[in-house]
Amino acid sequence: MCAEGDDRAWERFVRDYRPLLYRAADALDRSGGAREVADSLYAELYGIKGGAGARQSLFRYYQGRSSLATWLRAVLAQRYVDRVRVQRRTEPLQEDVDRPAPPPPDPDRDRYVALVRAALARAVSRLEPRDRLRLAGYYVQELTLAQIGRVLKESEASASRHLARTRRDLRGAVERHLREESRLTDDQIAACLASVVEDSGPLDMKQVIYD
Amino acid sequence: MTELPERLLREALREPAPAPHACVDAETLAAWAEGTMSRAALAAFEIHAADCARCQALMAAMARTEPPPIEPAWWRRARFSWLMPLAAATAAIVIVVSLSTGERRAPAPQMARIEPEPAAAALPRAEETAPPKAAAPAASAPAATPLSAAPPSAAPPSAAPPSAAEAPPSARADARRDRLSAPAIRPQDQPKTAGGPRAGKAEPRVFDSTANVVSTPPPPLPSRPSAAPAAAPPAIEPAVPAPAAAAAAPANAETGLSFRGRSEDAQARKMVTAAPLVIASPVRDSLWRIVGSAVAHSEDGGVNWRQTQALDADVSIRAGAAPAARVCWLVGARGLVLLTTDAARWRRVAFPEAVDLAAIEAADASHATVTTATGRRFSTSDGGITWIRQ
């Protein structure tokens, strides 16, 4: 009825769902940026008159595979994520002010870092999708273990346990790769890992892995 | 170092390879969030999201915007769930105990009570001491409702003392004891029934042991004004002045009699032993009177009394029941149960416990139920040869 322009239905929708949308927006961005996205959704949900004069509401995409509230959260998440990704592309790169001062030049350091990058990229690509998703959720999206558990439909303890196992597997895979593929000794492997610990440098994994 | 540095991991995961398939739409994302996707669709989505930064961000956004789960009520939480059966069992026990307490209290009106000793001349004649069933309707005033039909809670508001039902168990026990011993207080300054045939005479209380209904109107409550209506039943005042008693101590909810304290209570109990206990039988004019250890039987409504077999001097009779003209059960302290079937000789009936017995109900010479001072009930169906605890 909202899609058809029923004012009473629309009023009820706004009354019932606006608080929910605002709560979701605040959870995404406490600075208020997501609220702008939520507000902009109303226009699309209310409907925009097309060229033929017919109202085109965003509700027409709602097929009922989930509750309306969850669907609204999903739409808001899409709009917000896309907006953030666009902004990141257009924003200039910020200097990493927290980065420590560069260590004294080491002739082997660049080679060690490159070796570790390659080994890590390969190990990550060989992870199970679910393990990779869990790892990305923790290190990239910075979700809590509880949130990761909800995302992957597992308990927080399971998420923590799987995460620890994945890290151990990655470490083992990297060392194995360095030993078997790069023919490094144990001392050299330790030096490689020490190099990335001291300063892993600006890692562009897209370049490291796929170029 | 046992693990790879986080910074390195973060960077390695930040920009995964482009996903081979298109990102999910809002409908699918919402279905994923609610867990309504099929297993195959879910696996496909996870495979895609594992390599799709946008979908990872979408999943993270959905996780962050998920409303907090509704906390169940504290008693429904898992750590309290085990308490539910325990609580239910406790409630059931409380209900059972309450009901059993109520059942124990129920026979209170059925107990024979000690009647104020009337003067020999004042003993009512047979026609005056109407049969119980006839006497009850005669009490037309509301206060004349038989005790059995008037539960403690039905006492008028003027019954200042708390009802026994509201009192703690110990208080209820005290109330029960008081109720048993209350009649020991001799009547004093009994009001006269204006114009009645018994005007100026003491009003004996007669009990119907068969119908288990006290046919005598209940005594007035201490707070009841002395200037009672003409139709009001005769009142039995406590030994102590009523105002003082009412002010000093709570009155018994049922009897309306009050005691100042334990010393007066003890004094009243002492008087109980001396006061007569009159028991009526279903047979008209058949009465039993117990004074101390002497038991007398009357077959003419109390005009003439004949002493029965003398009992031991230390016998303390507390209650009795006469289911037939010549059959009478008596109970007393330390498990005393006496039975006569010829209104002359008494037979000591063995009782399983040497406890004080407070009341007895009898249907005939074989069937009787005894209530102890603590409220336990024992019944016999073979004249006291065997007793079964109820």
Mean pLDDT of chain B: 64
Share of helix of chain A, binned: 55-70%
Quantity of strands of chain A, as a count: 2
Order of helices and strands of chain A: HHEEHHHHHHH
| Helix/strand class of chain A | mainly alpha
Number of strands of chain B: 14
The structure class of chain B reads: alpha+beta
Output the strand order for the largest sheet of chain B: 3-4-5-6
Biggest interface, which chains?
Answer: A-B, 66 and 47 residues
Unreliable stretches of chain B, pLDDT < 50, 5 or more residues?
A: 106-264, 266-273
- Report the biggest beta sheet of chain A as strand number plus sense, adding barrel if it closes: 2 strands, antiparallel
Order of helices and strands of chain B: HHHHHHHHEEHHEEEEEEEEEEEE
Chain oligomer state:
heterodimer
Give the biggest beta sheet of chain B: 4 strands, antiparallel
Number of helices of chain B: 10
Q: What proportion strand of chain A?
A: under 5%
What is the end-to-end distance of chain B?
A: 77 Å
Report Rg of chain A.
24 Å
Rough outline of chain B: rod-shaped
Low-confidence stretches of chain A: 202-211
Helix content of chain B: 25-40%
Q: What would you note in describing this structure?
A:
The complex is a heterodimer of chains A (211) and B (390). Chain A has 211 residues and is mostly helical. Chain A contains nine helices and two strands. Chain A has helices at residues 7-28, 33-46, 68-90, 109-125, 129-139, 145-151, 156-180, 186-198, 205-210; strands spanning 48-49, 55-56. Chain A has a two-stranded antiparallel sheet. In chain A, a hairpin with a 5-residue loop joins strand 1 (48-49) and strand 2 (55-56). In chain A, helix 1 (7-28) packs across helix 3 and helix 4 (109-125) packs across helix 8 (186-198). The longest helix of chain A is centred in the C-terminal third of the chain and has 25 residues, at 156-180. Chain B has 390 residues and is α+β, with helices and mostly antiparallel strands. In chain B, 28% of the residues lie in helices and 14% in strands. Chain B has ten helices and 14 strands. Chain B has helices spanning 6-14, 26-34, 39-50, 53-65, 78-81, 83-105, 132-138, 169-181, 242-248, 262-274, and strands at 207-208, 213-214, 276-280, 287-291, 294-298, 306-307, 317-321, 328-332, 337-340, 347-348, 357-362, 368-372, 377-380, 388-389. In chain B, the strands form four sheets. Chain B has a four-stranded antiparallel β-sheet. Chain B has a four-stranded antiparallel β-sheet with strand order 7-8-9-10, with no helix packed on it. In chain B, strands 11-12-13-14 form a four-stranded antiparallel β-sheet, with no helix packed on it. The longest helix of chain B has 23 residues, at 83-105. The chains are: A mainly alpha (211), B alpha+beta (390). At the A-B interface, helix 1, helix 3, helix 4, helix 5 and helix 6 of A face helix 1, helix 2, helix 3 and helix 4 of B.
